[in-house]
Design goal:
With about 210 residues, this protein is α+β, with helices and mostly antiparallel strands. The chain contains seven helices and eight strands; from the N terminus they run βββααβαααβαβββα. Strands 1, 2, 3, 4, 5, 6, 7 and 8 form an eight-stranded mixed β-sheet that branches. α1 runs parallel beside α2, α2 runs parallel beside α5 and α6 packs across α7. It is globular. The model has no long low-confidence stretch (mean pLDDT about 90).
Amino acid sequence: MLAENYITSSCKIDGGAVFKDGQRIFENKGVEVNDFLLLIYQHFHLNYPKFYKMDNLSKLGWLASEILIKDSFKKDNYQPEVVGVVLANSNSSLDDDIKYFDSVKDIASPSLFVYTLPNIVIGEICIRNHFKGEHAFFIQDNFDATFIVQQVKYLLDNNILKACICGWVDVLEQDYKASLFLVEKQKSENLLSFLAENMDNIFKDS
């Protein structure tokens, strides 16, 4: 019998607010996305100088992952090879592609070119936390919780991973949304089962 998988933590950044496990923990509306991401970084007293070099997609995903696993994930319980990341969005790296295209008109920017792949955000998360497990980034028209559950469940049920950060990270100009889930094989009456319905409810709730 396959072990059941559970959502042990969730984090959402959307509409000028940050939510951890359904609770609003930070809010600052009416500022541009780059300023908002910096305010989050400062508010939670994060210390990672590389943050300032990241593009907005990586900043958003990295911040959501930091808040997701803080006080919720015991990394020492896992080998780096069994912790993975599976993400999706609808705009790929278009936010950076546009900026890079504009830079080419003058002098092409290597610092922008580095981020013209959507899976770079996964690299930033994995480098920070030394995660070395399976990872993937998918492009979807809309958040497809059923698809994400299928992908992650396969990895967990076949013991390829024992824990996985999964969900949605998307930025295009001033539109942004991150909704991440930490999934583990950790049974508890207080945890939500790793089901598409539960993911959708968290993703849509505000």
